[in-house]
Design a protein that fits this description.
This is Short-chain fatty acyl-CoA regulator family protein. This protein is α+β, with helices and mostly antiparallel strands. It is built from 18 helices and 13 strands. Among the domains are: 64 residues, 434 Repressor (Amino-terminal Domain) (Orthogonal Bundle), CATH 1.10.260; 56 residues; 134 residues, Orthogonal Bundle (Arc Repressor Mutant, subunit A).
Length: 473
């Protein structure tokens, strides 16, 4: 037991300062030299068990306080420094432990400031949404990563890149793939660029969807991917070679601020090009109109997944040959919005997509089923909404399945042109009363409300309790 050592110098210093003692006075009471106490307080000497017992006897110190780490503070500080604004500031966790132990009051102050910052950032974000809803542009935003910049650029513009579409159609025509686009692309990659395509088992490539080996000139695809997703990966690789000039031209037009943002955007444009190659514009638009935008019919016609066909519907805005302006939003089971896009830009101001009552959240309870709703906004605007779950890469027995849900919608005025409009035509379904987001919605008595609106004072009446968890006046 005598060999057990504990380094707790900052805590000893706080005890001494709290009692108003000098190092000499405390050292005398503990029967050690002032120089030794000084080394202890600087963590250059340990607290032995005998000294711990002496501290407890002389100053009534709680031994658990001396021996235990400031775990709660460290955990909270770890969350603070995980924020994109502060990420990379600390080389490791040891500094967090030192701050929590040496200056717990300062650490608590940091936490209070950070919480206030987050709350104000949320309020500013809500205010920005409210101003946008009323038609006012605003630059108010939270901390932005390169990915945030790319997402904002793509969400605020039509999901259409004319030069990529034209080049993809021409490339598809030269391939003449018939019913085997994957085979035609594999042949083209090998013949024109010497690139072979191979599938690898999970144990050989456990964490990647695909990998291009420049040395061996091979494109490796994970066997976790469905045949549809493997086709998209092959099409992305081919597009980056055959449509490189068009992709770079569209990338330059986005005017991004950093190399990292350009790298992310280039990947997004390559994925767009893959969709354009898999589902050529003219043929896809014609098929979509004949099928009344039935996504299941389109996925079978072009041998793609439900996700691919739904995403392609948002891209049909070529001048002189436009389809219905669809928009999409993808979420996970925790409600995180992963992606938003639309033919005319995601209708953030009119639709929002932050309402808990949207059928995209209900889709997780019915995997694989297509859910249709007519949704009405507080201002009277209405949307036709279609949602379905999407399955991620194949999971192993001991892994949790990655499942997200995709919402695809359009203005309710187009319901007669869309096969899904049958489900809500003639009063088949009552309109779902939704809002842009809880903090911007003033619908009273909403059972799904998660936050009070920023535009109304809370109605705190001890004599009355409303249906919502947050009553307001």
């Amino acid at each position: 037991m005598a060999e057990n050592k504990i380094f707790a110098g900052p805590k000893v210093r706080r005890i001494r300062n709290g009692l108003g003692l000098t190092q000499m006075a405390m050292a005398e009471a503990l029967e050690i030299s002032p120089s030794y106490l000084n080394l202890i307080e600087r963590n250059q000497r340990p607290l032995t068990v005998q000294l711990l017992l002496k501290l407890a006897a002389v100053y009534k110190v709680d031994l658990d306080e001396l021996q235990g780490e400031a775990g709660g503070l460290v955990r909270d500080l770890r969350e603070v420094f995980a924020d994109p604004l502060l990420a990379g500031e600390l080389p490791g966790e040891q500094e967090l432990i030192e701050v929590a132990e040496a200056a717990p009051n300062a650490a608590s102050g940091i936490l209070k400031l950070y919480r206030a910052y987050r709350e104000q950032a949320q309020r500013l974000s809500d205010l920005a949404g409210l101003l946008a809803q009323e038609g006012h542009d605003t630059s108010i935003s939270a901390t932005r990563l390169p990915a945030d910049e790319v997402r904002e650029k793509l969400e605020r513009r039509p999901n259409f890149f004319a030069s990529i579409e034209d080049a993809a159609e021409a490339f598809h025509g030269r391939l003449s793939p018939g019913d085997d686009l994957a085979g035609a692309l594999r042949h083209w990659l090998r013949k024109e660029h010497g690139i072979a395509v191979r599938s690898l088992p999970v144990h050989a490539m456990p964490n990647l969807r695909r990998r291009y080996d420049r040395h061996s000139m091979r494109l490796f695809l994970s066997e976790r991917l469905t045949p549809f997703d493997q086709l998209r990966e092959i099409a992305m690789e081919a597009s980056q070679l055959a449509l490189n000039a068009e992709i770079l031209a569209e990338l330059d037009a986005l005017s991004l601020s950093s190399r990292e943002a350009r790298r992310i955007a280039r990947f997004e444009l390559a994925r767009y090009a893959a969709y354009a190659l898999m589902m050529p514009y003219g043929a896809f638009l014609s098929a979509a109109q004949r099928a009344r935008y039935d996504i299941d019919v389109l996925r079978a016609r072009f041998s793609v997944s439900w996700e691919h066909a739904a995403n392609r519907l948002t891209m049909l805005v070529r001048p002189g040959a436009t389809g219905i302006p669809f928009f999409v939003m993808e979420v996970d089971s925790a409600g995180n919005r992963l992606r938003r896009a639309g033919a005319q830009g995601f209708p953030q101001a009119r639709f929002g997509g932050g309402c808990a009552k949207l059928n995209v959240h209900s889709a997780f309870a019915q995997p694989g089923q297509v859910l249709v709703d007519a949704a009405e906004m507080p201002d009277g605007g209405a949307f036709l909404l279609i949602s379905r779950t999407l399955e991620g890469p194949q999971a192993a027995f001991n892994e949790r399945v990655r499942r997200t849900a995709l919402l695809i919608g359009c203005d309710f005025a187009h319901r007669d042109e869309v096969v899904y409009g049958q489900a809500v035509a003639g009063g088949g379904l009552p309109a779902l009363a939704i809002g842009t987001a809880c903090r911007l919605c003033e619908r009273q008595g909403c059972l799904s409300r998660a936050e009070p609106p920023v535009t109304r004072p809370l109605g705190l009446d001890e004599m009355v309790t409303g249906l919502s968890a947050f009553d307001f006046q």
